[in-house]
Amino acid sequence: MIEIENVSVRLGGRVVLSDITATIAAGELVYLLGRNGAGKTTLLRAICGIVRPAAGRLLVNGRLLSAVNRPAVEIGVHLGVDAAHPGHTARRHLRWLAHAGGIEPTRVNAVLDAVGLADVAGRRIVDLSLGMRQRLGIAAALLGDADVIVLDEPVNGLDIDGIRWLRGLLRRLVADGRTVLVASHLFDEVARTGDRVIVIGDGRMLADAPVGEFVGAHADLERAFLAVVGRSSAEYPDAAGSRVR
Q1: Less Cβ crowding at N or C end of the chain, within 10 Å?
Q2: What transmembrane ranges does the database entry give (predicted)?
Q3: Nearest in space to 75 (alpha carbons), one of 7, 22, 145, 153
Q4: Phi-psi sector, 186: left (phi>0), alpha (psi -120 to 50), beta
Q5: Tens-digit pLDDT profile for residues 66-77
């Protein structure tokens, strides 16, 4: 479970997030939506303990991550494909993460198999395609077998086979009772797999609702989103011509 309680974040003297409150339960796939610069990645980084909130608190499975001895087994994180040293091989990168996180090294081969990278595990990361690096980042998130998984734009760079694979993986994680939070711009995937959406704009919470309820009378998820974030109905008409709250 992830509990976000009245969280505000300031970076460089600027308020990036303001009074965000939400709970993502076990067995739930929640998508975090927002325009570029809305604060999605900052919120994910705060949840993972990379960014310190100026106010409020963030709990993972009922505890502050700062009080956890091995955070890598509490929360699995993939926040971007550039996190790995390009000169390392895929296997070496995961072995380093396992050592740093106090994770059994046998997990490395298990997650390489799980994400379909076993055959390229000896290749340098710089030589991997974007889709392969996305899979490697997802493997890193799975390494600690954590109950909470946080992913930032994991679909970017995946081909159709990769997208279908990720779709199935996310639903299996949820079926296994894990908490999954994903930031995404791909509304088709949100509509296909999501249980709930959280929308933020200009650092503030704009909506938090089950996908079907959020769409409501709008023609689709895209139009519901545009209504919430403030695009004019004349430019992007929806089914009802109304604003979703």
Answers
A1: C
A2: none
A3: 145
A4: beta
A5: 888 899 999 999
